[in-house]
Protein: Peptidase C39-like domain-containing protein
Organism: Streptomyces coryli
Amino acid sequence: MPTAPPSTTGRLRRRLPYCLPVAHVPQARDHWCGPATARMLLAARLGDRAPTVQAMSWMAERVGGTYRGDLRQVLNWHLPEPVYVLRHGPHRLRRDVARSIDRGFGLALNLAVPAAGARLPGYPPGPLAHWVAVIGYDPVRDRLLILDPAAGRPGFDALPRHPFWMPRNVVAPAVRCYLGACRPPAGSAAPTVRSTPPPRWSPQVTVSAAASSSTPDSSPLPHGATDWCADRTSRTGPDAKPEGAFVTPPSPSPAEPDVPTAAALPRRRRLVAVLALLLAAVAAAALLVADLGTKPAAAASAVNQPISRGEVIDRAESWVNKGLTYTVTGETAPDPQGKPYRKDCSGYVSMAWHLDRSRVVSTDMSIALVASDISHEIGKDQLQPGDALVKWDQHVRLFERWTNAEHTRYLAYDFGATPVKHQEYTWNGPDDYQNYQAFRYNRITDDNGAPAEPAPPQTEPARPQQPAKYWVDTFAAGPGRPGTSRDAARIGTLNAGTNYVWCKKAGDTVRGPNGAHNRYWLWTDLDSGAGQGWVSAYYLTRWGNDEARDNSGQEIPDCAA
């Protein structure tokens, strides 16, 4: 940046935040935050040629609102080059906001606050799942300039219907994912300078003579934006605004509007303008339906080939809110390209990883999801979006991100029961499986295209210190207890029928009629109650007194001390 003369104006110019000329677009209905955000971002690049919110409202028709993959596809479809990429979590937000804004592209932030999560200032309490636009950043005070399409709607009354500042460290914990022009241009080691905004933005803004027209600080902004950016950054006196949730910029002067208002146009011209807008909306909607609605979305990856973390999460998201029913009968459902995968936990992760078939969580390495040619084990603190959490022979879910600094709570995708869930879990929570092992798909890549760390030499993954399952038949429902004592409190039930157990242990003898008795207790997963517990071997259908064998006649091993 050119050196400014030693004046107050020069010092302020070097501290100006970086802002894009974007007007607020309200969402007319619930769940239309995605289309409204897309309209704001595209209008910053295309001006009046940007599609209307109505033309893009098809994105909000799915249950729960706009799917991130649809929003990315629409943004890239309308631009000369597909610059928008998907990022998960806030760990690169500061760098990516600067990179995208400096190139002249706003960002779409997806805010997700669980019901018990910390409330964002100015926003209603959780649960919150919402899209907003980021149109500027302040590198000095580390804050973001936000346009929220829901401003003014019930529950969002505290938000202004114009850009407002919010500290990045306040926004970051709520960021589930975002879309931005985050990659450097091809052949360039650094982001390019912001390009010239669309022609419709031609405000009468006086730029400091000390600032070069080639610097980001001197790019044209809507009326008042340059003054307010400089003013909010430089105030240090008694009239300075306190640092808070958001800072409201002054309204534009009515004497110098950015565009002619409707009231300023003759009646006939207003009618013609309305008709033209309606015709444009219909045409844009028809183009979108023709191009996006009649064919399945193309996958960025091929079966059993490298796949980015973003695409893995997109594929997992594609089964959420689809009304799929969990089953153990081998029934299937299609992925976004129509390939069938089993509707269970391991089939779901196989689909997300784009494997050639539905794998299983099993000790048989020929079909296992954790076979060495498919995935490799990693540490808990190495988990990243798209990795798997495995409980041997029982369950698997797809990790998305940690939700606290202690790494005790996390977001994950799970299809262990109906419906497919995307929710927060507690590591080793009391109502969940204990001691998950983390696995990483061998061909997963980071979202920037770089491969993840290479997989270790292919060896069978280490089994946890837990015996294999032994299948047994029980003639009646057996009470589950926390220990091997008859007097221990009942904590659950093992139903009659075919069940599996892990191991046996001697304890109090359970006696029945006709002299039947058994002193062994079996460690198993209970069908109801508190997860795992001890059930007396007295309930085994076969064998005699004080025997504990599986259905094949093999003696069930003793549990480790």
